Structure formats: C-alpha cells, structure tokens
From TrEMBL:
It holds the Pfam family Acyl-CoA_dh_M. Its cofactor is FAD. It comes from Podospora comata. Residues 44-154 form the Adaptive response protein AidB N-terminal domain. This is Acyl-CoA dehydrogenase. Residues 326-505 form the Acyl-CoA dehydrogenase/oxidase C-terminal domain. The keyword Plastid does not apply. Keywords: FAD, Flavoprotein, Oxidoreductase. Residues 191-316 form the Acyl-CoA oxidase/dehydrogenase middle domain. The keyword Transcription regulation does not apply.
Amino acid sequence: MEPSSSNTGFIQQQPVINNQFYDDVSYQRVARLFLPSDILDKITPDAAQIGQEILSQQVFDWVTDAEHNQPYLRGNGRDSFGKPKSELVVGEGWRKLQGYGFKKGVVALNYDTDHGPYTRLVQFLRCHLWEASCANTLCPAAMQDGAARLLQRHLFSSAAKKLSPIEREVFQNAYSHLTSRDPTKTWTSGQWMTERTGGSDVSQTETVATYDPFPSSAPVPLASQSESIPLGPWSISGFKWFSSATDSHMTILLARTHPSKGVSAFFAPMRRHNPSLVSHTGESGNGTELNGITIQRLKHKFGTQSLPTAELELKGMRGWLIGEEGKGIQEISTILNITRVHTTVSSMGYLGRSLGIARSFALVRPVGMGKGKRIALSSHPLHMRTLANMTTDYHGMMLLTFYTIHALGLDERSLPSNQAATKVPTPPKELVQPLLRVLSSLHKSYVCKITVPLVYGCMEALGGVGYMQNVESEHLNISRLFRDCCVGAIWEGTTDVLASDTLRALKHPLSGKQSVQALDWLILSSKNAGLVEEWQVLKNKIDTGKQEELLPEARGLVFRIAEIIISVLYLVDAEADPGVEIEAMCARFMEKKGFSVCEAPGKRAREGGLKLDQAIVYGAGKDLAQGAKL
C-alpha cells in the first residue's frame, strides 16, 4: 500500500461539459416541437455555435472576473474633497459578457430578424443557452427587451399618431439604441417600479412627476450633445428602492402626476449633457452627468452579485411621459410580459446547465457498490432514477415556458396563412391575448419556484464538490447558479404575488371569462378525460367562488392549473415525436401529480429500470462507455 499525498493517489477526473444545444435532450425536443423544421434548420448553425462558444475558457474567465470584481461606487460616492459623485464602476468581465450578448443579438434578434410568430422562440432558445454563462448580464437585457417592445408599440402602432415630432424623435433614438447589435451603441434599460412602500404593489408610489417644460426663450438642455436629443419636459423626484441594471443608459419608471390619478409611465435617459462641467485635465464643454440621479448605495445580495443593484434618489430627473397620465400600469405590463419570460428562461437556463454538469459528473465519478465493486454514477440505479425524475420535471417546465413564449410570439406577430403550423396547440386569434394574460404570471409563479430545489438537487448530485464555489473550475460552479437562481421566485413578482395576479386575471369582470375560455380551449384540446375532469373541477371553483374567498388557495390553484397544462403539453410532445423515453416521462409526470395515466402513453414503460432512466437522462442511444470503463 502507498499513502496518498496532495499530488498522488486518486484524483477525480474533470467532467467535460458538452454543448447543450446537442447534449440537452429536452432542449432538442422543445426546439423540434415548437419550431417548423425549415426555421429550425436555418437557425441551427448559429445557435449551435453559441452553445459551443459560451463554454469556452475565455467566457468562464469573464464570469469569474465579473463575480470577483463586483460593482462598486468610486470613493463610496464622493470625490477626495467630499463632493457627491455617483460614479459606478463595473468589472472588465461584466463589460465583455455584455458586449458578447449584444453582438449575438440576445435582444436585437427579435427586432431585426423575422421568423414570424416564431421569432420569440428563436430568441429565447438562444437565451436559454446563454443564461448560465452570462453572469446576469441578461437581467439588464431583459429590461432592454421590455423597453424596446414598449417603445415599438408607441412608434409603430396607432399610438404613434399621438406622438409629437419631438417625442417621436426621442423614442426612435432610444429604440434604435435598444435594438442595436453594436456594443458601442447598444443601450440597456432600467425598470424602476419598486419603492419602500412595496415591490410589485405600486399603488403607494411616492415618486412624483411634475410637468415643467423648459422656457421657450432658451435652448432646451440636451440628454446627448452628439445626437442633439433634448431632455424631457417632466421633472421627476422620488426614491427607488431596488434598481437592477444601474449601469443602464435609460430607464422606464413609474411616478404620480396627480393625487387623483393612478401612476404614469415615463422614459428618461440616465445621463444628460452639462457643458459647464470641467474634467480633471481642465477640459470643458463635453461633460455629462447623471440625469438628476444620486446612487444612494449598492445592494449586497445573496446572489446575482455581479449585477449592480442600487437605491436611487431622484431630484429633478428629466423624462418623457409614455402614453396617458394615470395609465402607467397598462404601459408597464408590456414590459412585465417580457421580463417575466426572461426571468423564467433564466431559471430554466440555470437548471439546464446544472443538469448538464450533473450528467457529466456522473459519467466520470466512480462509486462503490459493495464487495469491492466499483461503477460509474451513471450506472448507479438510484442516482439515475433521481436524475431521471429531475429531468422529467425539467422537461415539463420547458414545455410550459416555451408554450408561454409561443403565445407571446403569436401576440406580437400573427401566424401567416401560408405558414405551416407546428403540432403545438395554437389558439384562435381572439384567445391569444387572454391566454397570454394568464400564462405570463402562471408560468413564472410555478417554474421559478420549482426550479430552486431542482438546481439544489444538481448541486447535491456532485457531493461536497457541488457545494464549493469552484471558481478554479468555473464550468462546474453550480453553487453560483443556485445563488443566482433563487432570485427568480422573488423579482418580477414573488410566487404569491403572481399567483394572486393569475387569480385576478381569471376573475377580472371584463376579461376574466375570456381567460378562462382560453384555458378551457387549451385543456380540452388534449381530449384526455382525466385532465379535462380535473380542469372542470377547478373551473367550477373559479366560476362560482369570490376572488377574496379563493385568494388563500391561489398558489395551490395556480400550481394545479400549471400541472394540468404541463400534462397536456407532455401528451402533445409524446404524440408529435413518440418514443419510449418521452412516453415514460409523460406517464411518470402525470402519475406523480395524481392524474390518471390510463390514457397516457408509456404506462408500462414508466416503471422501466436502469436502461430507461439512462435514456431519459442522456438520450436514447447515448454512448456511456466512458462511465463503463471506471
């Protein structure tokens, strides 16, 4: 016997993380199910290349840098002589990752590429790959996307008629920046709603906007000298409690304009031109400063530590009204539809990568089976059943998430009459918006909550190594993914807030019946008696119960509807692309959730042994020889 040392004896082989575009079986199934084959063929080379590039050592070095060199206020917010100076500093890794995302069009693709109603699906399939390698740069990108969509609605719809020439110029300039792929020109955006009075509840907003146009006798001050973009006529003051994307170039925010009116939405640039500023070298005339904003302090968070999140004091911030006074909630809902999908996709991206790491680790990790026998974890029956069950939950949530994106795409771009439809249930045009209204809150409430313990389970699957920060092997750092994943169930509406919002949508006096009708249409399309019967019970409860009486049960009610929809989509997927693995996953999911599986495919296969579990985890026909050699 030879004693081990720090450099001799058994040393675990490093797992190899594979390109998720090909390695993630669920990702592949979702892409085939939701996209027409011609579009999938067209986007595959570019998406596959992204899947490979984001696993490069360069990208992981940027991630490590972004996490290590976290955002800070230079001089803690003051210069050497005590003068306030809100200068935010972000690391090189953060800037590089953000620039990579801009070049790859993580937002721009939806605005400069036309795949019809499938454009959003193409965009978010790319985002899903990028999430776990982007070090949270997709958070400001989410708000960038939402702001672009909001300005797009006002620039290119009937609302455009209400814009003055100068408003059109200002909004068009911002829209062009938001949808650019050039890192030197692209803007991100903030989304300032949260105040100390409440997060998602903006009814007590204390930020005040006053219409105070500049005198006509003098030139209007500029937001940008180089582009001659003027500052807005509204003066905005208040305090914003949480502002992620503090390094953004603009923001959409809520403020009150009158005590008797609801909150209003505003666009404001983050910086403004100040010709009187003098640099430390004595130069003047080209200076810029924050647009009436003081960064009070940066937040110290459990996760998303590379992301600059701050408390902001606004004093005379200049902005432009978006839409009508008092209609800010309607305006901001356009952004929320986008940012909630981004948040859910981020949760799924973290889980997809975590499962990929767990799969790769199982291939190279030897474990004892008693009596001196050693096998790879990938051949351990209990471990494979555990990963198979997690994969089944993951695929169900992928189906729900991308069906919501399918509805979002249909809402933004109608299905052309000559476009071949996929096998995914596509609602009638009149039911698209009512369905999206429910799914927007429902899918995030369910997915972002369920994802957290599953990512933790992947961390556990690596044993003690999974609990480590692993900055020296960043590609294995599930603990970072877990910390970042936890915020998904909190920002853009907590689980209970969104469950309450879903209930509100279903009980709305004007549009509630349409939303119920949309769900009715989707679930009845499955023609599965068990699911239809379960839905009818819930539907009756929704129809007959008062909103305040149903509120305590809202989370359970929403989660049950989510499980029914997932089961419907599982049946669709199993029928569209049948196989022992997907049929077993469908049956296992439905049985786990208490639905009758007598009509589900794969009833017998759901109880299959190790071979079936390995096929669910790694895909049918996957060569597990690497693990067999251990």
